[in-house]
Amino acid sequence: LINIGNGDQFGSGFVDINPxxxxxxxxxxxxxxxxxxxxxxxxxxxxAEKFGEFIPTDPAARAECMSWLFWQMGSAPYLGGGxxxxxxxxxxxxxxxxxxxxxxVKRQLDLLDKNLDSREIHSPSKNSYKLMIVxxxxxxxxxxxxxxxxxxxxx
Length: 155
Fold this sequence. Notes:
There is one protein chain. With 155 residues, this protein is mainly alpha-helical. It has seven helices and two strands. The radius of gyration is 18 Å and the shape is flat.
């Protein structure tokens, strides 16, 4: 296990697994040679392909699944991290970045909730959509209170 509070991600061989020194990272020791995988999206795709789960094989359904996965990879860390930083951790509070990130996070959650409204959330394939859910503990409770389709997916 890597303790980022102690800076373990900068040493202890972790950089060999993720040269960017960030979590998450995975080292699959069931393969020879061992397979390193880093970045959330790459890990999700690797595990889905390795176990033949979550990602549809039909080209159109696969494209839809991958589009939403990469949408989440491109927006959630930047927006959630930016909002969390300016709201909770920045040494000085500035109204503009807090409002800007809050507005964009809300827009993205609205988009996700609207997309989920057109899905059979409780179908056998629901796990493919569960991959998209961002579990930022800062926003999780409020998002689940506000967005009914996220609540259904999370249940």
